[in-house]
Specification:
The chain is α/β, with parallel strands linked by helices and 282 residues long. It is built from 11 helices and 13 strands. This is DegV family protein.
Length: 282
């Protein structure tokens, strides 16, 4: 039987909407979550909701890891049985070794894969892959897709309202003093992903209402620059996400807002209660 021309690959930190889930040529390679000696596969052994419950009750804070090059290689050998080549978009190489492991896996499998370092997370990965798939559908070559997506890298705007301060403290991403003061003053830290693919603090806002308005103001600015659709990722706070969507659409009439859930791996690092808005510049 003839092989299909191309498979499309991401890792499980990507936002995966229904249309990708239902695409037979799409593959998501899951990362791992560790609670002490116990290992779980992101999205398979552990849902995001189950993760939050475990974090609240666990003595040890979880850690995350990417599959080894050998594990990637085994997955790619299976995909190679049905496809001539693949195109993979991964989370920022500045935040994880996933891209390196994936490239190593392709070499082990002897499977031709074209790679793009998204320098992003979540929809920042998805948006690139979907654009590449659309280009391929319209007749573009893999080389042409690679050039265009590399040019798009760095043009995704991602603003993240970090969630549970206690989770950030337990995870070692906040000192005891920062946690105490932040809780006392009800500070809401906001970070973005810079053009180099690194998380960068940009604001500390008092109160959730002001923090949400900070995100809305960024969306208003984007709308003035011709953006008509954004993505809103949430960490087990769907009610707040729906409220933020309502506020955005009240202040930016006509703005389309798609809400999605953060993956379990991202939930470990960002914290329960996290909200993020993302879009690609035109």
């Amino acid at each position: 039987m003839a092989k299909k021309p191309i498979a499309w690959i991401v890792d499980s930190t990507a936002y995966i909407p229904k249309e990708l889930q239902e695409n037979p040529d799409f593959f998501s390679i899951p990362l791992n979550i560790h609670f002490g000696e116990d290992q779980y596969i992101d999205g398979i052994d552990l849902t995001a909701e189950e993760l939050y419950t475990k974090i609240r009750n666990a003595d040890q804070f979880p850690k995350t890891s990417q599959p080894s090059a050998g594990e990637f290689g085994e997955k790619y050998k299976i995909i190679a049985e049905d496809y001539e080549e693949a195109f993979a978009v991964h989370l920022s190489s500045k935040m994880s070794g996933t891209l390196d492991s994936s490239m190593g896996g392709a070499e082990i499998a002897g499977f031709p894969i074209t790679f793009v370092d998204s320098l992003q997370l979540s929809y920042g990965i998805t948006g690139l892959l979907q654009h590449g798939m659309e280009m391929h559908k319209n007749g573009a070559t893999v080389a042409e897709i690679k050039v265009e997506l590399d040019q798009m890298v760095g043009s995704c705007n991602t603003y993240i309202l970090m969630g549970n301060l206690e989770q950030l403290y337990k995870g070692g991403r906040m000192s005891a003093a920062q946690f105490y003061l932040g809780s006392l003053l009800k500070v809401k830290p906001i970070v973005h992903i810079n053009a180099s693919g690194e998380l960068e603090p940009i604001a500390k806002v008092r109160s959730e209402k002001r923090a949400m308005q900070y995100l809305i103001d960024k969306v208003i600015e984007a709308h003035k620059n011709g953006i008509h659709k954004i993505y809103l990722m949430q960490g087990n706070v769907i009610e707040q996400a729906n409220q933020l969507k309502k506020l955005i659409q009240e202040q930016v009439p006509g703005m389309e807002v798609e809400i999605g859930e953060m993956s379990s791996v991202l939930a470990v690092h960002a914290g329960e209660g996290t909200l993020a808005v993302l879009w690609y510049e035109k």
